Amino acid sequence: MAVLDIEDLSVSYGAVNALTDVTFSAQEGEVTAVLGANGAGKTTLLRTITGLVHPRKGTIRYDGEQLEKMSVERIVRHGVSHVPEGRAVIDEMTIDENLRLGALWRFARNERSAVIEEIYELFPPLELRRRQHANTLSGGERQMLSIGRALVARPKVLLLDEPSLGLAPIVTARLMAVLRDLTVASKLIVVLVEQNARSALSIAQRAVVINLGRVVVCDDADAVAGDSDLRHHYLGY
Amino acid sequence: MQFFLNITLGGIASGMIVSAVALGLVLIFRATNIVNFAQGAMAMITTYIAYAILHQGANYWEALLAALAVGLLFGATTQYVLIRPIQNKSPLNAIIITFGFLIFLEGIAGAIWGSTTRVYPAPFSESGQKIGGTQIAFSPFDVYIVVAVLTLMAVMLVLFRATNLGLRMRAVAFAPEAARLLGVRVKPLLTLGWALAASAGVLAALLVVPTSSLTPNFMDVILVYGFTAAVVGGLDSPVGALVGGLITGLSLAWVGGYLGGSLEPMGALALVIISLMIRPEGIFARPPARRV
Amino acid sequence: MDALKRPVRALTAQPWFRLPRQPMLRHLTFAVLAGVGLYFLTNWLSAFNDYQAGQVAFYAIALAGLTLLTGINGQISLGSGGFMAVGAFTLALLYTHTNWNLVPELAIAVAVSVVAGGIIGIPATRLRGPYLAGMTLTVALGLPYVTNQYNSIFGGDQGLTTPPPTGPSDINPEQWLAWIQLLCALIVLVLLGNLLRSRFGRSFRAVRDDEIAASLAGINVPRTKVIAFMVSSGCAGLAGALLALSAGVTNSAEFPLALSIYLLAGVVLGGTGSLMGVWWGAIIVVYLPNEWARSLANAFHANSLVSANLAIIIFGLVLVVMMMVAPAGIQGALRWVAGKVAAYFSSDPVTNMTLPLQEPPGSNINSPDIAGGSVTETEKQGV
Fold it and tell me: Taking the CB of residue A151, how many other CB atoms lie within 10 A of it?
């Protein structure tokens, strides 16, 4: 049973403490939602797991390895994929090229087409536009491309940073459904950072609420969704 | 009329050379946001090395290949030693470092080879040819220049558009962080980018040197013209490098022909100023990224 | 309680000599004291050393202007050599065609350089970083070239003669010229010092640190940049005119590309934000190519080629190494050392805090300001 273990993680940008003593675990086959207000430190958390930022203190354990000191390249090769905030889809390239980029490190030439086709099966709208440049895509399609690109390398850990940002509710709902099914089917460890707590909680099994860099709640998603005081106070609804 | 034609043809040839320099500048700028002001000086040193190889008995083509290889190595080493350590610091550092490197290299060249001019041979005749009954000022050497630069651009095009290596390099240039998250090893690709750019500069130098003679400073103006071309075309656009180079070459040829050769650098300055007033980001500027 | 009393007492202690509070008076006092000191210095030095002291003076002027433009206003310029040429040739032409006094000639040289700076500075407001550097590089290369085109006006390879002015008969011409140059340097430094302390100085720095924030605060950013450019080119023009007098002749060979890079090196070495640092830079620019490089070459029995190029090699190397290791320059390094020394000797807990090596803001511009490209860069990285 694979687990992503975060313990006492503390990250600072100069004198500013972005995260302090963050501790939680994410299990395989489950979506762990990370919630909280703007600036709470959620993006920093994901960037630290991926290795873009190094923590001052604390450990990140996965699959018997400690990730907190590794380079981004090594962490990615351990099966961690990060769908960044703002999607970071490469506009100047086609959809096909974006996807192929994700497959390069993992798969040999003859295998790449097959895995890319799998992504098109997962996200049919992308296949229609596969030769178009990514800057012609709508917000929802860009998000599909970003997630698809992260999935191409068949990761074990998927980190998503605010995938619902700027998307219409119906698109968000569909996206979340796809995510949920994928998590269960592929036994992924999914860490889902969201400001849209409602949609995140609808597919999550665990929820971690972060406020000002600290974990204030770490519980089952149902419990968090059902606690109206907590929702009012930290999640805004 | 004949004069105008001759000048224009000359401008096309020199424009191609300038494009090659601009291409090298654009390559590095796109990938690393740094303008390599030492590009010309690096090419100059490599040309001196090619000259030495020639005088060991090699023929023009062997010297050319050797020079391109040396250029690759030189570019990679420079990036590794000088640029990697300061890649993440302010751009001001990189500017001053590349300028310092520029005069350092010119000093080294002067110390080793002195300032006496040397003649570097051209592989083809440099005198104009007869087409039909008229004398055209476009020599076989000029044809070679155009072919050589177009070949360089074709090679780059194929590399970037049709290979996976090129795909990775483009990713690093457009979105370095996203590329890292997809497992692309960014640092070696930056080094490769500098290596390729240096080779482009070397090719340009070897195309210029038969007409301008080999001295430690001979690439100074060419660098300036390459920079002008990049500004006109767009400092992050390879197509812009070609178009900008042609525009620059032609403009300067006309300035030189009608106003005087020594006014060409000021012509370049005027071109930069005009380009900035009309279209500051260059003709082929990259489209801005779409948010969300 | 005691720990509090000591620093408070230090603040209110009366030193034996107090400088006036107002910046202008303070600068003037410094200048007068320096002037007196320099007077005695030049009397004591030999004629040749006076000549060199004068050189240090006018290079200091050029460096002061460049420090203002690059260090304080954040516009990197390689065109100083070109503007020095403008000043020098203006003086030369005035000398050749009129019989005016030195003072109006210098004034006009400065004025012409200021105008030239305006002509270049206005389009330059659209540029930042390497674009600006490249454009000013074109100026540095191109302007001297122009003089080659119009040989009849500019005297061709030989150039125009610009002999130093003759002073009173009992004073050496070298000493007289050195006084003039040093006086100019002191005047320029006082004026620039005041300028930097004024509203303009704050505007310069604000524009360097963050253009958008500065414009939101009501500063006219393009106008500030052009003013900085014009002040800097005026200084360079004055320095060039004084150089013409030192050299006795003015031709384009006096203003190669290397000169602009030496000046940049002088600013970097002195400390890119520091006006007092210009003296270090000027000393190095004067003595390194002539005295020190030559002695070094002789010590190693190097041949004449090496000897002629050693200065350029060293400057280039210095620039590279400095920017990698000590971007704060000599002045910054001295400040750091002084801070460490003060901390060591003081038992005061406040001063005992170690000061980090301060990079003057000029060398640490964080915004990736390239015209047209930068904003998209940040957007693209998935911010």
Answer: 22
User: Residue B95 and residue C376: Cβ atoms within 8 Å?
Assistant: no
User: How many whole angstroms separate alpha carbon C81 and alpha carbon C261?
Assistant: 8
Partner-chain contact B96 C126, CB within 8 Å: no
Kindly list the residues from chain C whose CB atom is less than 8 angstroms away from the CB atom of residue B175: 380-382
Task: Give contacts of B292 with chain A, Cβ < 8 Å.
Answer: 86-87, 139, 142, 165-166
Instruction: Give chains near A: 3+ CB pairs under 8 A.
Output: B, C
For an interface test with C, give the residue of B79, B81, B103, B231 to mutate (most C CBs within 10 A). Answer: B103
As a whole number, the mean pLDDT across chain A is: 90
Chain C residue numbers touching A91 (CB-CB < 8 A): 380
How far apart are the C-alpha atoms of B55 and C139, rounded to whole Å?
37
**Neighbouring residues of A39: CB distance < 8 A, sequence distance ≥ 6:** none
CA distance A11 to B252: 55
Domains detected in chain B: 2-278 (1.10.3470)
Q: Where are the domains of chain A?
A: 3-90+154-235
Given a cut of 90, is residue C6 above it in pLDDT?
Answer: no
**Beta carbon pairs, A and B, within 8 Å:** 77
pLDDT tens readout for residues B108-162: 999 999 888 888 888 888 777 776 666 777 888 888 999 999 999 999 889 988 8
Reply yes or no on domain A3-90+154-235 having CATH 3.10.20.30. no
- Residue C364, pLDDT > 60, answer no
pLDDT at residue number C375: 33
Give B31's contacts in chain A (Cβ within 8 Å): none
Asked if residue B227 has pLDDT above 60, the reply is: yes
Residue C136: closest CA among B117, B115, B35, B143: B35
**Could you tell me if the ipTM is greater than 0.85?**
yes
pLDDT at C242 over 90: yes
Please write down the HEC assignment for all residues of chain C: CHHHHHHHHHHHCCCCCCCCCCHHHHHHHHHHHHHHHHHHHHHHCCHHHHHHHHHHHHHHHHHHHHHHHHHHCCCCCCCHHHHHHHHHHHHHHHHHHCCCCHHHHHHHHHHHHHHHHHHHHHHHCCCCHHHHHHHHHHHHHHHHHHHHHCHHHHCCCCCEECCCCCCCCCCCHHHHHHHHHHHHHHHHHHHHHHHHHCHHHHHHHHHHHCHHHHHHCCCCHHHHHHHHHHHHHHHHHHHHHHHHHHHCEECHHHCCHHHHHHHHHHHHHHCCCCCCCHHHHHHHHHHHHHHHHHHHHHHCCCCHHHHHHHHHHHHHHHHHHHHHHCCCHHHHHHHHHHHHHHHHHCCCCCCCCCCCCCCCHHHCCCCCCCCCCHHHHHHHCCC
Residues of C in contact with B80 (CB under 8 A): none
CA dist C142 and C134 (Å) reads 12
**pLDDT tens by residue, A147-188:** 999 999 999 999 999 998 888 888 889 889 999 999 999 899
**Contact across the interface for C382 and A85, Cβ inside 8 Å:** yes
Tokens, residue B25:
């500048």
User: B265 vs C129: CB contact, 8 Å cut-off?
Assistant: no
Domains of chain C as residue ranges with CATH: 19-372 (1.10.3470)
Q: C380 CA to chain A: closest CA distance, Å?
A: 6
Using a CB–CB cutoff of 8 Å, tell me whether B170 touches chain A.
Answer: yes
Of the given ranges (A71-80, B272-281, C153-162, C371-380), which has the lowest mean pLDDT?
Answer: C371-380
Say if the Cβ atoms of B171 and A72 lie within 8 Å. no
Contact A85 C383 (CB under 8 A): yes
CB proximity C212 to A under 8 Å: no
